[in-house]
Structures are given as C-alpha cells and as structure tokens.
Design brief:
Helix content: 40-55%
Order of helices and strands: EEHEEHHEH
Radius of gyration: 13 Å
Largest sheet: 3 strands, parallel
Strand content: 5-15%
Distance between the termini: 35 Å
Shape: globular
Structural class: alpha/beta
Strand order of the largest sheet: 1-3-5
Number of helices: 4
Oligomer: single chain
C-alpha cells in the first residue's frame, strides 16, 4: 500500500499536524480499507520540503492500523520515505495503546 502525502496537502503546506488532519488523510486514502492480508507493507511518501510530521498526525492516520498490527509489527510494516523524525512515529505508537486517557502511564 502506498500513500503519497503530497496528494493530501492543504495548499502548499509543509506541516502535517493534528489528529483530525491525519484522520482526514486516512479517510481519503487506501488506509481506510487496510487489510494486512492484502498488503506486505505500508509505504508513506513524505514530500522533501516538509518541515514536520507530528505524532498526532501519525496517530490520526495510522492509530487503528498500529493497534491492529501491534507495536513491533507496526515498526516493521510501516515504512516512511522522506523527512520524518523517528521519535514522532514512536510517540504515535505509544499513544495508540494509551487510549483516550492521557493520564494512563503505559510504562507502569
């Protein structure tokens, strides 16, 4: 499965942020029909002129998939091509399992 974030820009925006925006990309791409049996990986193309992709955006776009795959499998299954901070994806993975309560300590 291939998703090019350049196809989901707002104008010439160089920032991909916010859970709502990530959900919008998920809903307007093939990600909404994710089926692990059908695809070997998810490749996400990030435009070279991107300033930042936030963990909240990734959580909105990939949260359901991360929960379905599990932490380790998600790390192997989702591949980014372009400028991304690996910490943002790791934070999205952590948040995906935290649920709606930000006070839950997932490390406890």
């Amino acid at each position: 499965m291939y998703v090019d974030l350049d196809d989901h820009r707002s104008g010439q925006s160089r920032v991909f942020s916010g859970r709502d925006r990530g959900e919008s990309v998920r809903d307007s791409s093939e990600l909404k029909n994710f089926d692990e049996e059908e695809f070997e990986k998810i490749e996400i193309e990030i435009p070279e002129d991107t300033y930042i992709v936030t963990s909240s955006f990734l959580l909105g776009m990939l949260g359901d998939i991360i929960r379905e795959l599990g932490e380790e499998r998600a790390r192997d299954y989702v591949v980014f091509d372009g400028p991304i901070n690996d910490d943002a994806f790791e934070e999205a993975i952590t948040e995906a399992f935290r649920g709606d309560d930000p006070l839950i300590d997932v490390d406890a």
